[in-house]
Structures are given as C-alpha cells and as structure tokens.
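User: structure tokens for this one?
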Amino acid sequence: MKITLINGEAGAIPASHRALAYGDGLFETIYVDHNGPQFLTDHLNRLLSGVEILNLAWSESCTDKLLNEISRLVRDITVPHALKIMLLRNYPGRGYDFDPQQQTTDVVLQLADYVKPAWAEKGAKVVVAETYINENQTLAGLKHLNRLDSVIARQFARKNNAHEALLSDAQKNIIEGSMCNVFFKVGSEWLTPSLKVAGVAGILRQQVIEQNAVQVREIHRDELANVEAAALTNSLIGMVPVVSIDNRILSEKVDLNYNWNL
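Assistant:
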C-alpha cells in the first residue's frame, strides 16, 4: 500500500515547484506500526525547528491540522509502515528569493509498507566514503531536502558491496552515514560524532545519547582503527550492529539485547 496526500488531497507536485528546483523544504521519515507513529513528538519538534530556520509559512493551527491528518492516515495501521512528512515552500516567483508574506507551505504525506532489510538483522558492512559532506552550521542537524551528499555516498557503498558509507567533513572527522547516525566503541567508551558543522540530528541518535553514557565529540578517520564495536541508527531500521569498517572485521558485535533504554 502506498498513499500520497498533498495538502490533504490526492495530487501531484508541479514541475515548477521550488522543492524540485532548489530542495527548498524539510522532511521527516517516521516508523509506524500498531502502536502508532514512533517518536512523533520528537520528529515534530525537529520539523518545527527547521520551519523556523528556513522561515517557512507555518502556524500553530498548521501543526494541529498536520497531527489530525497523520492520525487519520495511520489509524488502521497494524503492520510496519514508513510515514514521510514533507513541508515544501510554495512561492509563485522565479529565482531563489521569495516574499515571506506571499509564500505558502505545501504539506505532503506519504505512507508506504515497510520491510526492514535483511542485513539490518545480520549486521552492516560499512565503508568510509571518498567524498566529503557539505558543511553548513545553519542547516546542521536539520533533515532538509538537499541530500546529494547521501546520494553520492549510497553509490559508493553499492560499488564497494557495503550496506552503509560514512561521510566526513573537510578535516576528515566522521559526521554520519548516508542514511544513519553512527556510534563507536573505543575501549570502554561509546562515542558519536559531533554534528556542529553538518549532519542530521537523528531522533534515535538523541534517544541513545540522552539515556546512555555516550560522549559526543569530533572523531577523526584515523581513530576508526581503534574502534572495537559500532552501531548504526535511524528511525526505520532502529539500531543495527556494524560487523566491519573498510573490510576490517570489528572485534566486538553490538548486543542488541543489551538494555539501551530505548
């Protein structure tokens, strides 16, 4: 099953839309099952943070309407689905500029069946991408529509027979994977990269940080040689153990039965 609603109705995005031309918008991807949308409040808070930074047209009544539409869309869900929310700036003029008083925001909801990939249960083979992530402190943490870094990294992973590719900044500090946040175990400590200059502040990443002893700091590529265990997280696949980094088999595998307080 796949359902797409644009402003509450079936429809299509016109070819002239700013979201297609400039990636001018935000999105969230949410795991949904018989218990409803997982971490919905956290996803909504990140979305609203992006609304403020991008200066999208939005109000409290828009939030209420969005929540009502989500509730209606997922009320009969009994098996895993992926819910995607997109907020797209709509403005009639050409070019990058826009008049804040004349803009509107299109709300796109997509609901589709979700099946976790087989490798998520067995563990992920990870490589370090050759390309660097675009750095922008203003956009760091947001899940905006400009995802070309991830597109290129996914192809690098595919070419190297890996499940995920890690992206670095210009100083060769690891930031994130193409679709996941990452945690490393070095000695007795668990670490996760700082996202001050780039990256997506993942919802599950934040849950792990808040409820477990995890140090957030810069992690240089050279430190990967000392990593004994690692894990990937995102909202759909959950937490996945890493079995290798650049073909080096890790000495430990993350125990998913360990109480991660999630």
